[in-house]
Amino acid sequence: MPSPNSLAAVLRTVRAARGLSQEQLVKTLDARHLHNVEHGSTNMTLKMLEGISGHLDVDPLALLAAASSFDRQETFEEFMAYLWSELHKLRDMRVMENVPAQFSDGVLIPAKGGKPATSAGKIRAVLDCKAEGLTQKETSVKLGIPPSTVHKIWHRKDADR
Description:
Layout: H1 4-17, H2 22-25, H3 31-38, H4 46-56, H5 60-71, H6 76-92, H7 95-98, E1 103-104, E2 107-108, H8 120-131, H9 136-143, H10 147-154
Antiparallel strand pairs: 1-2
Helix pairs in contact: 1-5, 5-6, 8-9, 9-10
């Protein structure tokens, strides 16, 4: 992510290249906030970046890429090669194939909070140790899991199988 100062410099430069004053650009957000954004003294939200970039007629990703390229002291070509390698990482993780599962009828599904559930394999291993007559401490050492987790599984209502 680019620094606020680099992004501010890119925004100022693009605004000047478009021949726009801050007052002309201010239609997208509060005048004082635009001043702070262009001076790198505040961060902006994605929504604000989208509004400013729309008025500047430049894709927000291009603005972020230009600022990031500057921060990394790379040419656009070098930065794009780096970005391409990052996109390959996402492709290898099959991100784009799995993103649709995060939505239902076009609405983002709320994320579940808290710790992930204890795996069935871990529960089975603890209960097997209990059935073998091992103590909770011995089970914890044998399986390499925290004693608190062993205790929780050990005393589950359904622990008798």
